[in-house]
Amino acid sequence: xxxxxxxxxxxxxxxxxxxxxxxxxxxxxxxxxxxxxxxxxxxxxxxxxxxxxxxxxxxxxxxxxxxxxxxxxxxxxxxxxxxxxxxxxxxxxxxxxxxxxxxxxxxxxxxxxxxxxxxxxxxxxxxxxxxxxxxxxxxxxxxxxxxxxxxxxxxxxxxxxxxxxxxxxxxxxxxxxxxxxxxxxxxxxxxxxxxxxxxxxxxxxxxxxxxxxxxxxxxxxxxxxxxxxxxxxxxxxxxxxxxxxxxxxxxxxxxxxxxxxxxxxxxxxxxxxxxxxxxxxxxxxxxxxxxxxxxxxxxxxxxxxxxxxxxxxxxxxxxxxxxxxxxxxxxxxxxxxxxxxxxxxxxxxxxxxxxxxxxxxxxxxxxxxxxxxxxxxxxxxxxxxxxxxxxxxxxxxxxxxxxxxxxxxxxxxxxxxxxxxxxxxxxxxxxxxxxxxxxxxxxxxxxxxxxxxxxxxxxxxxxxxxxxxxxxxxxxxxxxxxxxxxxxxxxxxxxx
Length: 496
Fold this sequence. Notes:
Strand content: 5-15%
Structural class: alpha/beta
Radius of gyration: 28 Å
């Protein structure tokens, strides 16, 4: 069991700044809601933490965050819309006057008896990271701006200090984003080196007072001038762990407020309103009209002679589809039925990663355009950082069923590399692509720990095999899957 704590401001603010050119005035809240839902997908225990009014830190130091402009009224409106929607989803949303979201998160960590994952871009929260054991459950931070998950080792690798030293580290270097001034002339490298040697600020000043250590004159001057402010700065960067929270809410079932019991009759007025809404024309062909075309295309594809047997996935896609089959398999026959199906699928919480009933509907429609049934579409599309991605099996299957493909086969596969070959109809020669484990490793650059924890080291054969197949598919069949990427390529993790 893991508890996910989301810093809402860290999600909303970047989206707000990037959505200024959007014609939709509510674009920031729409994207933020979708991002939070994606973060919470598959997580049973989630809480959203928010800032609330003037921070107590402004009482300690009037210059705290004083450089920041007054919060835009439209931004506050987008925040309010976001909070209202997330509460409607059944998420606990916490805000305590006088405290910042970071303090709420720190207090929740203090309460937690299970591992905690914090989603935020705020580096202040790295002081909460721990590995678990005698000091309590493990705490990691997912940095929203780059997707990096920070544990104790990663904090030390990036900053040169441990999480327990992070408060003193921030005190020395300061935090320009919060208008906190550290020790003049002491940067990150010097601060990390001194804390590594002396452990903490108290022992550093004790060594300075004894005169037994040789410090440069500039360092002595910087530490001497900083000393009167040290206690204040420490209190500004230290997160509070005593904020009163309804912590038990995180364990309660997350039930959307507008969800009725499945199968329960809705009031007639609501039914009529939904029916009227469903009659609004949408720019997509209905299933009955497109089914014959899909069936004809698939039937044509099955007449092509392959030099290999299609894998079970491709056979599934190649199976002729008729209107009777759709009815038997509870496929929607018209847009109102598709809308209803999408709503029930979303409300089931099994497909919450898609974010909203509208997104579920879009995936169903995308799958229908490819000749795939609704439930199969929802299983074979994945949401990666808010964007849909197709499974490698689906990409390969779409190519193998196409009349343009004479064959598409795996030539060899091992833990070191995989090679796939295909022959496109009309091409004089077949095309091969080989993908190696070294190529996969290069994408992780210097993040050795993340690489070791990834699917590339746990299931290397699967990863090189799937990646080679999707690269070959895009190379030769750009008209079929020109911009399709698999979760393995986007995240380095194997899809289900």
